[in-house]
Amino acid sequence: QVDAVRVYVNSSSENLRYPVLFVVRQQKGVLSWQVPLIFRGLYQRTYNYQEVSRTLCPSEATPETRPSDQIIFVDVASMAPFNIAYELLVTRLENFQLETNKAFNFTASPSQPQYFLYKFPQDVDSVIINVVSDAAYPCSVVSVQDIVCPVYDLDHNVEFNGVYQSMTKQAAITVQRKDFPGDQFFVVFVIKPEDYACGGSVPSSIHGNANRTWNLQRTKNLQVTIVPSIKKSVYVQAMFFSFLSFLSFYLGSVVVAFVHYIRVQRKASAGRLTPEHGSGIMTSSHPISASTPEGSSYGAIDESSSSGGHQLSSPEHRPPAGSDTDSSVEEESDFDTMPEIESDKNIIRTKVFLYLSDLSRKDRRIVSKKYKIYFWNIITIAVFYALPVIQLVITYQTVVNVTGNQDICYYNFLCAHPLGVLSAFNNILSNVGHMMLGFLFLLIVLRRDILHRRAMEMKDIYTLDYGIPKHFGLFYAMGIALMMEGVLSACYHVCPNYSNFQFDTSFMYMIAGLCMLKLYQTRHPDINASAYSAYASFAVVICLAVLGVVFGKNDMWFWAVFSMIHVLASLALSTQIYYMGRFKMDGPDSDLGIFRRAVMVLYTDCIQQCSRPMYMDRMVLLIVGNLVNWSFAIFGLVYRPRDFASYILGIFICNLLLYLAFYIIMKLRSSEKLLPIPMFCIVATAVVWAAALYFFFQTLSSWEETPAESREKNRPCILLGFFDDHDVWHFLSAAALFFSFLVLLTLDDDLDTVRRDKIPVF
Fold this sequence. Notes:
Largest sheet: 4 strands, antiparallel
Helix content: 40-55%
Strand order of the largest sheet: 11-19-13-16
Radius of gyration: 35 Å
Number of strands: 19
């Protein structure tokens, strides 16, 4: 049993020049204070209290002394030239030691802090200190300190020792036995003189320019409960659950691959691989006519010649299918620089009805190498981006551990399970799904790539003109991006806060952008963006995200500039998509050509053909897309959301969903079909994304608010007693992204036996 004594003093004197000094001398230390007790706030404001109550550092009973033998000296002094009345009261605390699983209620104020003792039970290695209050204010601080005298229990020194949190209505601190060699600690409760640290305002009783306040009533009722935390076995169960859950995806993929292999072998043995199924020789495509049929739209051709234009290399001059080369001459095709080919491109790409053969005319090997650059570049970007991020979050975690300031990181403290130096291991472990499923997707793409290469080596060269061109570079880049999202999300959750949130979103931008590029590349393989321009665009977006974090809080000028850039970029991209990259703002005869061409385009497509645009499907998509993007720009300009990174991510996701929906609708409209696997992936994607978003919007913390206000949103674990709602979001979002990638990978498998001059472009 530990005895504790509390000293209460009161003085009616308001003379700050001659305060009454109280010094308490004990066996293990000295404690002193003055009355009136002065607390300092912002802008030189002071708060004076004439009643002070302090708990003296307790002493445990030893074999040499009994509990009643504690000797305390109290010295009272003042330099005042006149008498000062004071009151002194010493009492013994009855409930100084807190008990496990038992709630304890008490009251504290700025001049009357409280602290209590807790001892670890024999079978408990970790506990959670839960503190709640019905009132948000006054702002308070909860601190856990080692058994050392003196105890730091005033506003100006409570941060000097131990671990501490600011608090409004709720606080939670996880304490491990290994951090306290004596198996015991003090829980200290301090009420702050002002509420600015918790997001509050200046006390309403302060008016005008008054900088001095007397005996401000700032009493707070608190309840503390100390409960045992989870055992080590729960950590093991959680890790097994995390890995086994995603290993099941590997097992499912193996089963699907095995079933597919059996079906292919049966078809091969039954002799069902006929020329119509992609193993035969197709008839040569008809070249485009030099003149357009009378009465047709510009560049229109007959259905019989819908395959379009001259082949860039005749069958006799094509290299073997399996050959490859690093020649820079081949990568920079001479055809792209010839004026006749530029004219040919204008004729083909501006036809009313485009087919895949019109936009897959370049050498397959050259285009494939172009897309492989996406893969190698994203690996380089990932290494250079991730290394400083890892260094930074390690520094953040070290600062938290050394200073004890738990206001630096915005955890869900009611479900933050430490492991080693990490404060919230569960938030890091839950990101393993992104890495495991990203690697699985790479394996699936690699298998398809290998099978495609084998088929290319075994079949006749004319089979290149069947189905969607197989370029896997963007798929490899998507798999790496998914893995890096897991790595960077884990880094962010080492110490989540306002400054490093862009780490969690940077590769989300890249995933959304790569998915849109892949969707566009499917039927536009010759005119998709290069890796260099795509990654440069992502770099610009990330730079804007960083600027938004710095300037996007309340600066109107930033939102005006960003909204203008957003609208202009949408218009420029829409123009390139509408004209298949053939719109060039240059004049052949003078510098005024740019304006003349712009006026002609507006007149031709917006006035002369306003009732029916030349490319109706593209026009509908672009009108809806621009309306969505302009709405985002207006919303940002009006409301100026603080979470700028999520705002940009919302723009990317909405554009991706819009384009994917358009693609699927146009695919069905073109009498194409969805095979069982892509249909299953689409349904799984929708279901898993719906479940994931439900857990995403269960806000457990928010760095848009103060740390104390954020802790009001904290909630207990919901899965295995180890994972919270946000961890479930990590699990489900990883699966949802994986299924989304499979949708893009398998969506056009039904076209593998269809000639490219029969596959429409949209």
